[in-house]
Every structure is written in C-alpha cells, then in structure tokens.
Design brief:
Order of helices and strands: HEEHHHHEEEHHEEHHEHEHEEHHH
Radius of gyration: 25 Å
Bound molecules: heme C
Shape: globular
Number of strands: 11
Strand content: 5-15%
C-alpha cells in the first residue's frame, strides 16, 4: 500500500542526501578553489590579488622560515595582505597579540636604536615606535669612504647615530612584482650591475637573480641575524619564489571588479604586462626605437566611455572617477623643477611633464631604467621630530645641506647624489600605506598633496579625489 508519509519521508531523505552531496561537492570545489584560486586579501579599499605560477602560496618556501638567530623570516617584514610589505596597523596588532615579542620587534633594526630598552611592554612600545607608527625599519649604514662630504652634525633623537653608523629609517619595499625592477632597494644598493637593454626577453634575468640572491643573503645576515648566509639552494628557492609573485588590486569597494568591462586591473593581467629595460623611455632611449608616450597607464581606458551603460549607477560613477584619475596621472601637466637626477641631467630648468614622466613603465609605474632622483622626501623642511637629521658639508665648497637620509650618496659618496631614491613600482598601493621611503605620506591623499605642493600644480579637490581613487585601484 502506498504510504504517503513514508513516501514523503523517503523523498525528503533523498532530497536531503542530494543536498548533502551537492553541498559536499560545493565544499570540495571551494576547497579546490581555495588551493588554486589566485589569492586575494582584504584591504581598506577592496581586495589585493596575489598571483603565483602554481596558483597557491608555497608556505614551505624558506621565505617563510626563520633562517637566522632572532626568529625572523622574510615574512616578518614582507606579508601578503599588506602588499608584501608591512603596515603600522598590522604591526600594532602583532605587538598587542605578543606584547611586543614577535620577532619583527628585534632591537637590531626594528627599534629606534639597537641599544634601546626593550625590557618591558611599555619600554618596547617606545623602542619600536617607528615600526608601530610608520612601518619603518632602521637601516644602519656607515659614512662612505672617500666621500665628497663630511658628516658635520647629527641630531638623532635616539642618541645612537654617528659617522660609524647613520640610522636611516626606511619602508620595506614589496617583495612582489620584482620581475620589473630596474634597481633593487630604495637606493639601488643591491643592483648587481646596472640592468642594461637589450637583453633576452628584455629582462636581464640573470643579473636580476644575482642581485636578488645577494639581497636575500644580506637580509638573512642583517635582518635575521644569521652568523652566515645559508647555502645556495635555499637562496635560490627564495629568489625563485619572490621573483614570480605578482600583486595588484583586483576589487574596489566602490567600483567592483577591476578587470570587468575590458578594464585591466588585477595580478593575472599584470603578469602578462609587456616590459623591457628602457621601455617607453622618457628621454627617448627606448631600445625598440619607439618614442616616449606619456599615456603610460592604460588599465582603465575602457571605463572612460561616457556613453557606457554601466556608468549610470554608483558603481559606474566610481569607475568613471578611476578613469578620470588615470587620465590625470598620464596627462595632468607638471612643471618639474629642481629635481636632482633629472633637471640637472637634462640641462633643463623646467621640464613640462606629468606623473608618467618619472613613473614611465607602462601599467607598472616604476622608472623603466634605473633613475634615482631627489624629489625632496628627505629634505630638512620635511623632517619630523621622530627622524634623525644629518648635516653634510661639501669638502670642496664648504657648503652644507641637511637631510634625514642621504640616499644614493651613502653608496657613491657623491654630493650630487644626496637625497636620491628610486621611483618604486606603483601597483598594489592600497594594501601598503604609508608611502615614500620614510613613510612620510600616511595615505595616498597625502602623496597627492605632496606633489601638488612640491610642484605647485594647484589641483582641484575633485582632481585630487580622482587621482587617489585611481591610485587605490592599482
Ligand atoms: C626587518 C624587516 C625585514 C626583513 C626580515 C626582510 N626585509 Fe626585505 N626589506 C626590508 C626593508 C626595510 C627594505 C628596504 C630597504 C632599503 O631599500 O634600504 C627591504 C627590501 C627588500 C627587497 C627590495 C625590493 C625592491 O623593490 O627593491 C627585497 C627583494 C626584499 N626586501 C626581500 C627580502 C627577503 C628575500 C627577505 C628574507 C631573506 C627579507 N627581505 C627580509 C625589510 C625586511
Ligand atoms: C620627478 C619624478 C617624479 C614625478 C614627476 C612623480 N613621481 Fe612619484 N615618485 C618618484 C620618486 C623618486 C618616488 C620615491 C621617492 C622617495 O620615497 O624618496 C616616488 C614615489 C611615489 C609614490 C609612493 C610609492 C611607494 O611605494 O611609497 C607614489 C604613490 C607616487 N610616487 C605617485 C606619483 C603621482 C600620482 C605623481 C603625479 C602627481 C608622481 N608620483 C609624480 C618620482 C616622481
């Protein structure tokens, strides 16, 4: 006899089983996707995407293992969610979680001075203030031999710096998007020999690998305080890992997916970016013979269509703002004056350019040849009380200059190189405030305000907003 209730029960059970199978399958796929999907991490303005060749982050790589004596690994200062560097916000969380005992908080270069008192939580809070407030690491460097200048005064609030070792507080650069580097480190000091065009596939890969291997060895002996650098295979594995990390913003809170409707945001598209040393060279020295094109950023060209149907809603308006910001980056006129390494090099007192004159590598944003320049970030006028200030006196002329960081001049000993730094890659910015070598711009708005003031651009509030919206989407 047909039992209605049994049937219903059986049907329910079948349905439940099917649902369970579906759910399990979904979970399985989700898990597989978790393993395989391009990895995304949240930040204040959306999501950062990291791409690796295998589709997952190989956490067994020695990049993540302590290789020295203080418990630090590369990952102590180069973290995925922070755009492969570190941020004050995350460092403060780490400090609170561990009472300041996480290995990133090591006196050697995490503290304001290697001699700082770190015996209590409160002492550690002030010793590690530069990390906690600005995400800065102390790079200790001796005055160069045979320099054209002498160190004639030191004003170090922490009473440590001297000619034997200047304290230079610098932001860790991202350990991602390295394949497009034209100089390694803010001052280029780990660049083995200048990367020269033209090379295999346009990248001097062997030179880059040699540079990054030396950098890793120095990081292990320096930051990680190993007594000696580990064997070549460990270094090779680290370099192989970091060399293939690609990171870029993929999702914007207001504009949505940054690769929709023919836009080209995100790490997967970035990984295919055409590049060679000297590409789109500002001074006309592109080895391909092509002339410089100021339109260096073309990620959001397709969003620059006023008639596009997607532009009518809130999301569409956000996309339009990003496209406007990109245009400003490429074409807003800037009268570049007083930039050492540029105006003096070209013999031009004023160069009519734009953001893309210096950030000229297409869709990447660094300079496509090593071009250290002084835009004034380390100038005495921008010194804050937490930074040491150094007075350097020219031996030949007797002239003096004050700076918080001599930059390239610490390597070359040249007066003309004081304050010169490389222009860094401008991708994955939203995840990694603060900006500039000394973290002096707390936000992208501060970066834009700096340029507006430094070059007397007189941007409108809306232009500034659009430019920030664009930079946040990189
Ligand atoms: C204590 C923090 C800290 C640790 C640990 C650390 N780094 Fe760094 N890293 C920095 C800082 C600071 C800079 C920038 C210094 C400068 O330019 O003077 C940097 C720069 C770099 C750069 C240069 C990127 C560029 O754009 O030029 C690479 C690559 C890098 N680190 C990789 C590594 C690797 C690999 C390890 C582990 C072996 C490591 N780092 C460990 C703080 C750290
Ligand atoms: C004269 C060359 C030059 C021009 C013009 C220029 N930049 Fe820069 N940019 C640099 C250099 C050099 C640095 C690194 C300076 C430092 O930290 O000491 C930099 C750094 C930055 C950074 C910080 C990146 C980071 O990782 O901290 C951003 C963002 C940036 N520039 C955006 C812009 C925008 C937007 C414009 C146009 C309004 C612009 N730049 C114009 C040379 C230039």
């Amino acid at each position: 006899m047909f039992d209605h209730r049994t049937f219903r029960f059986a049907a329910c059970r079948r349905l439940a089983t099917r649902l369970a199978i579906l759910l399990l399958a979904a979970a399985g796929t989700a898990q597989a996707q978790q393993r395989n999907r391009p990895l995304t991490t949240a930040n204040a303005s959306g999501w950062l995407q990291t791409r690796t060749p295998s589709g997952r982050i190989d956490s067994d790589n020695p990049f993540f293992q302590p290789l020295g004596s203080n418990g630090r690994s590369c990952n102590s200062c180069h973290r995925q969610a922070q755009g492969w560097t570190i941020t004050p916000k995350e460092l403060r969380q780490r400090f609170d979680r561990t009472n300041g005992m996480d290995p990133v908080f090591s006196p050697v270069d995490g503290a304001v001075s290697p001699l700082a008192d770190v015996s209590s939580v409160e002492a550690r809070r002030s010793a590690y203030a530069m990390l906690l407030d600005r995400g800065l690491v102390r790079i200790g460097m001796p005055m160069p031999d045979n320099a054209q200048f002498r160190l004639t005064a030191v004003d170090d609030p922490y009473g440590y710096a001297s000619a034997r070792e200047l304290s230079l507080f610098r932001r860790p650069l991202p350990a991602a998007n390295l394949i497009w580097l034209t100089a390694v480190m803010w001052d280029g000091r780990e660049t083995f020999t200048p990367f020269n065009p033209p090379m295999d596939a346009g990248i001097d890969l062997q030179n880059l690998r040699t540079s990054l291997a030396a950098q890793a060895r120095h990081a292990i002996v320096g930051h990680e305080q190993a007594s000696s650098a580990p064997g070549g295979d460990i270094i090779e594995r680290i370099v192989e890992f970091e060399l293939h990390l690609v990171a870029a913003q993929i999702d914007d809170n207001a504009a949505g997916r940054l690769n929709e409707d023919d836009a080209m945001g995100g790490a997967n598209i970035l990984a295919q970016q055409r590049f060679w040393i000297g590409i789109n060279d500002t001074l006309g020295n592109d080895p391909s013979g092509d002339a410089f094109d100021a339109k260096t950023m073309r990620l959001f060209d397709s969003w620059d269509d006023p008639g596009a149907p997607f532009r009518r809603d809130r999301r569409g308006r956000a996309r339009a703002a990003i496209a406007r910001g990109e245009k400003l980056f490429n074409s807003m006129p800037i009268d570049i004056r007083g930039v050492r390494g540029l105006n003096d090099l070209t013999g031009q007192r004023v160069i009519r350019g734009s953001c893309s004159s210096c950030h000229n590598a297409p869709n990447i944003g660094n300079h496509s040849v090593a071009l250290p320049v002084d835009i004034g970030i380390a100038a005495a006028s921008r010194r804050t009380p937490d930074l040491p200030l150094y007075t350097l006196t020219n031996i030949a002329t007797g002239k003096s200059v004050q700076t918080t960081d001599p930059g390239l001049a610490m390597l070359t000993g040249k007066w003309a190189d004081i304050g010169k730094f490389k222009g860094p890659i401008l991708r994955g910015l939203a995840a990694r405030a603060p900006y500039f070598h000394n973290g002096s711009a707390a936000s992208l708005r501060d970066v834009v305000d700096f340029y507006d003031h430094r070059f007397g651009i007189h941007m409108s509030t809306r232009q500034k907003r659009d430019l920030v919206t664009f930079l946040s989407a990189l």
